[in-house]
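Researcher: Re-running this chain for the archive, since the previous output was lost when a drive failed. Same request as before.
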Amino acid sequence: MYENLECISLRTVPYDDSRSIATVWTRQRGRMSLMVPSGSGREARRRRALMMPLGLFEGCVDIRPGREIFSMRDVRPISVHTDIACDPAKGLVAMFLGEVLDRVLRTSVHDPLLSDYIFGATDILEAIGSGRGTANFAPVFLCKLMRFLGIEPDWGSYRRGTVFDMEEGTFRTAAPTVNRWLPADEAAVAHLIGRMGWNTIERMPMTRETRRCILSRLLEYYSMHGFNLSHLKSLEVATEVF
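Model: Regenerated structure tokens:
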């Protein structure tokens, strides 16, 4: 049975000389693996462009019980993100977040609110200006994503001067004796980013050193709460933007 699905591309890897496997998150069914033809022709190049990290496309997927990899036909774009495709900085952010999502969504089930967030965030990345907005995008995206994964910290427990208990996900007046924690200065920045709206992302001043520190802490927090984000292949390259 063929079903029309809206997809966001996470990663594509070669399968053999003529085919590749695209890992996607679909709005209707959650995470899926698609077998797609490779090649050097015009249609193959068009398909590869659509399936770049965070690319949005739709098509008819052959849904058959018992299969882990599905075939797709009539692939077409949902929306064209020219900036993400052409701006090197946005492309690196998309590559990094595609790898992150590939890992964190492996155990996630279909969730309309999660899908709305991920699909909508790609439109925001496309629309924001290059520079500060693009550089701040990844840490803000990861902070907001935690809500849909059930690991969002208790932002309301923050008070000026508190530290952040990374294992409990709460702000405390005194450092825990055992748990990993962030000092008050880092906790304040984490709270600020966690509360930031997309409309203020381009106005948030952060040095590259601060941004990289927060990103490192975010990846550590995810890993502590059941999502292994160690040894990301794209991180070293993407830090040229962050």
